[in-house]
Amino acid sequence: MANMQRRADDIEDAGEFDYVIVGGGTAGSLLANRLSADPKNRVLLLEAGGKDDWIWFHIPIGYLFAIGNPRSDWCFKTEPVPGLNGRSIGYARGKVLGGCTAINAMVYMRGQAADYDGWRQLGLTGWGWEDVLPYFLKHEDHWSGGAAPLHKSGGEWRVEQPRVTWDILDAVGRAGAEIGIPPVDDFNRGDNEGAGYFQVNQRKGRRWSAATGFLKPVLNRPNLDVRIQAQAERIELQGKRASAVIYRQNGRRLRVRAAGEILLTAGAIASPQLLQLSGIGPGALLQQHGINVRHAAPGVGENLQDHLQIRLIYKVKNVVTINELDQSLLAKAKIALDYALFRRGALTMAPSQFGMFTRSSPEHASANVEFHIQPLSLDKFGDPLHKFPAFTASICNLRPTSRGHVRITSSDAAQAPAIQPNYLATPEDRRVAVDSLKLTRRLAAAPALAAFEPEEYLPGPQVQSEEQMFKAAGDLGATIFHPVGTAKMGPEHDAMAVLDGDLRVRGIQALRVVDASAMPLITSGNTASPTLMIAEKAAESILRDARGR
């Protein structure tokens, strides 16, 4: 960068690379690793956030301090959501190398085989379960040592069993069995129906982010350049070819040229925002903000899907939860010592430790809801824990039919886009929400929990009618941080498909979107590992195309 030359348009020349990757998060970390493995490829990774050099990026329970903190989170807010009774809610996105895997739940979850077979049935050849499983396995480092054919060891993405259990969670598991949710020891075999502790992306009690697994081991490669605090402003086009990225760093505007391809890996919020800022998107929206329409693509920013969690809280007795431990200095000291000496205990906790996948009602062919069970309770992230012992049973609709959008609010890249998840907009989603509350109450009333005398704190026993339940779902609902689909891939006849099956932006050369934006339909569970799978598959396609040029 020392040799940059000032250009007439006051943008400095930041050099040329074969591949410019925009976003150093989940997918970007993997792509940087794979593309720079060939020393002939010059690879640049641009990350708008900073280094993961804060202790709470690495101690698992640090998510409590990272989410909602401007040091680590972009701190987006949604537009008021009609289905949430007009509430605007926080929408966390990682602001650091590793992206959301530096602040998320660390839950290792592939989804269901039927998710990917559904993608294939949409016309996306090569995206069925049997097609994508090898890409999950390619980077997996499973605690079991690799119980083929469904698991593998030796890859960069570490998967371990949790290092702490709780009596209340074990009891919830027994309660699940009593209402028809059987115990399972692995949610990643293609059918995740059942109940059990989540496997987590950790190594010996420390968070294992995408940056830790994929990026840091290769930072010494001379052909890989990583630039942080580098906020992409737009993609430059020469005709219908993506040729450069304009970004801002330390108060300077810079242009980096791509001899090969530009790869957007900024996530389901920032990737469509950047496309729109670059003149690629819905024509009327771009014109509204004074942006020249370079390529009309009505699907850019549309099709937003997310898992809405409805958080029911139960006070309990005769059992220890995190709430009361948090109030004791002695208990906190013991927890800290246990972690310092043995890397185990409460500090290794993911946001959710115990999961349950089941059907909200009999008409569903497979599990359509997911419980995240926690031995704690609080009003929202960033708030203090409650002072009474309690557990939280969050339940989310795995396959929502509501669709939202992400749209720029200005031609200025520093201005946050409008995020409208549009939760609970369809009759199907409203039905699942009400059925989910009923199901959670059945779980809490099961005999296995009777010894703990669960008492519903939220929404409360006064909520009885279906109308009251639906209102309560709107009052309690919040994102579980799984936005996808805002630059979806699809067949050529789908006018709203932004990408082809190799994640290339239709109508624009040398430009791909390689992140959760590409999902046509959301997967049945946590979305970090499916995003890595997408990036793994894309890397193979990118390198194959380069060999053909």
CATH superfamily of the largest domain: FAD/NAD(P)-binding domain
What structural class do the secondary elements suggest? alpha/beta
**What's the average pLDDT?**
95
Largest sheet: 7 strands, mixed
The CATH architecture of the largest domain can be named as 3-Layer(bba) Sandwich
Q: What's the overall geometry? A: globular
- In what range is the share of β-strand residues? 15-25%
What is the radius of gyration computed over CA atoms, rounded to a whole number of angstroms?
A: 23 Å
Estimate nothing, just give the exact number of structural domains: 2
CATH topology of the largest domain: FAD/NAD(P)-binding domain
Cα separation of the termini: 29 Å
Uncertain regions: pLDDT < 50 for 5+ in a row?
Answer: 1-8
Overall number of strands: 25
Number of helices: 13
Q: Class of the largest domain, according to the CATH hierarchy? A: Alpha Beta
Word description of this protein:
With 549 residues, this protein is an alpha/beta fold. The chain folds into two domains: 1-149 and 204-305 and 405-420 and 483-549, FAD/NAD(P)-binding domain (3-Layer(bba) Sandwich); 163-197 and 308-397 and 422-481, 2-Layer Sandwich (Cholesterol Oxidase, domain 2). It has 13 helices and 25 strands. Strands 1, 2, 10, 11, 12, 13 and 25 form a seven-stranded mixed sheet that branches. Strands 7, 17, 18, 19, 20, 23 and 24 form a seven-stranded antiparallel sheet that branches. A three-stranded antiparallel sheet has the order 16-21-22. Helix 1 links the parallel strand 1 (12-22) and strand 2. Helix 1 packs parallel to helix 13 (528-548), helix 4 crosses helix 13 (528-548) and helix 11 crosses helix 12 (466-476). The two termini are 29 Å apart.
